[in-house]
Amino acid sequence: MKICLCITRLKSDLSEAISKNFFRLAEELTNQGHDVTMYSPVSIDVPSKTKLVVYSKEHSYQSKFSVLKNIKELSKRINKDHSDFDAVHIHAGFLLEAYLLGRKINKFNTPLYITLWQPYLGFKEFSKIPHLIFLKPKDYLYHFVLNSFLGVHFMGNKVKNKYNKIIVSSNYQKEQLTKILPEKIIKTIPNGLIDSEIKKESFNEQPNIIYIGHFTSYKGTDALIKSLYFIKKEYPETKLTLAYSGYGSKPEIIKLIKKLKLQNNVILKNKIEVYSELAKNDFLIIPYKATIGTSHYHNVLLEAMSVGVPIFASKIGSIPELINNEETGIFINPKKPHLIAKKVINTFANKELIEKLSENEKRLFQEKFIIKRVAQQHLNIYGEQ
Question: What is the edge-to-edge ordering of all strands in the sheet holding 283-286?
Fold first, then answer.
């Protein structure tokens, strides 16, 4: 099968989830013998036998204007090249991107698919974080204006006849989109990741904790640092590794660490090798306060499952689809750092529970998220036409 995989923005180092998932799917489809061409806004090292088309002259991953330019240029290429393929599959961040692409892509017979990683911010989700728009308008206002319940019905009406299928990774996303789109065009396929060769074998004498991601208010990094203050009272040598994605305010986090006198307990890192870094730690803690970024299955949770590192996470977005409390993870309340600390302390003292969490996570990953299985699910959809 000749497959065109396209993406509207991409980090060339694949340190971001959408970029990584896009690349892994292309790699696996190529490995299975399919003729894959990747349309990317930036040059990257592609898998052997995979073709690469760079369609953008300038690309800045974090620039919203860059994405708009990419949509324009990508649409031109798809309009020109679509007949060369059996399927054209676009990966995009938001419903707005699907709408804009839909306006610019011509009507043709080649099956057209789009994967949406963050459909929209519903009224229920937004009602929990309106204060953030006023506190940090630069970070959050565009979500409200361009990626919220305000305009989704209009955009839904415009895209429902444009794509053969709209693909999402979680039931949470599907339930969102079925409010504005016919259920028959929505397909759920989970993220596909390679399995880690590194597995968690033993645990440290005192808790070693890791967080990987943005340093922003809605990710709850501040709550995690505050919980460390309480954990330290029970385990003075506890170490917290904060792996910074590059997005958010690092100075604010450093200021809070110093304020709570936790400099000797916190390790700040930038680029990391995710699987090996996870394996060094006893727990991954993800204290998210808002559903931004959690509609889809968060890659770092799946990577932790692959390694067998017990997860502590908020009960929001799609996370409850992954975590069965005290079976495949532990739920925490990001608004109560002292209770996060209590759960960490109690769990660390229960070695039987730790082992159960680790084994159950690895089993779930094998059953659902191996890239070979996920690639086949995509092929099944391509073959439906």
Answer: 266-269, 239-248, 208-215, 283-286, 311-314, 330-332
